[in-house]
Amino acid sequence: MRLENKVALITGSARGMGRAAAELFAREGASIILTDIAEQEGVETAQSIQAAGGKALFVPANVARAADVQHLVETGVSTFGAIDILYNNAGIMPAADTSVIETSEETWDHIMDVNLKSTFLCCKYTLPYMQQQKGGSIINISSMVVFLGSTVPQEAYGVSKSGLLALTKSLAVQYGPMGIRCNAICPGPINTGLLDHLWTSEEERNRRLQRIPLGRFGLINDIIYFALYLASDESSWTTGTWMTIDGGISSNYF
Ligand code: NAD
């Protein structure tokens, strides 16, 4: 098993890619600290991992709040004894995030809090334990949108995800000498509920599909198996970098 004896904290793990990553990492031998604002689905995910023979603990938390994150990290460490993998996955993409003119200050702040401040907080409270352990792997979920402009703007989302790349590189440099790695993944459009509000018609869907050289939208497994590599010791000389996984969209001029 690729994650035997490791403990992984995965944010936003009640649904979507976070849930699938929790299930995959558990099958690969890791003990999982799940967290989400969606309590019922989080508890159900932990129970399904346990029913399959894995180790999992669900701690409800809004990862944009310092007190919640501190409690989450302390509860996880007191249950499993360590955090070897921090997978910053929780994120939102509200429909109210559009152009700079139309986006409200509240929407901007909310997206920055959930997508960017959450990762700052999770790193802030987890890194001291990783320093004591002299090792760890941090995985930040950014997005392909950080590399491209779009005529359908989502300004706060793109800026929040760009901030994650800056943080990724800075943490890699500061904590590399302590054996702590930090990398990012930049997914293209993946088939989860997150994008439903963008794809309101078949025409909207096809407009995006035509831009994808590999001819399909992404699957959850396209992302989480790369995260598994970053979480495992197989990537022990990989830090401060990112992988764009987007079916080739960001290489497509015409
Ligand atoms: P999702 O909506 O299915 O899952 C996100 C999870 O985060 C949900 O369970 C949600 O409840 C949780 N969450 C939201 N706010 C939270 C908070 N404040 N505290 C704790 N948990 C919170 O979305 P997904 O598609 O699985 O996305 C996962 C990550 O991947 C996000 O960061 C997203 O921005 C990123 N991403 C997704 C796509 C895509 O096409 N789906 C593309 C690029 C990047």
TrEMBL record:
GO terms for molecular function: oxidoreductase activity, acting on the CH-OH group of donors, NAD or NADP as acceptor. Gene3D superfamilies: NAD(P)-binding Rossmann-like Domain (3.40.50.720). InterPro entries: NAD(P)-bd_dom_sf, SDR_fam. Keywords: Oxidoreductase. It comes from the Bacteria. Belongs to the short-chain dehydrogenases/reductases (SDR) family. This is 3-oxoacyl-ACP reductase. It comes from Dictyobacter alpinus.
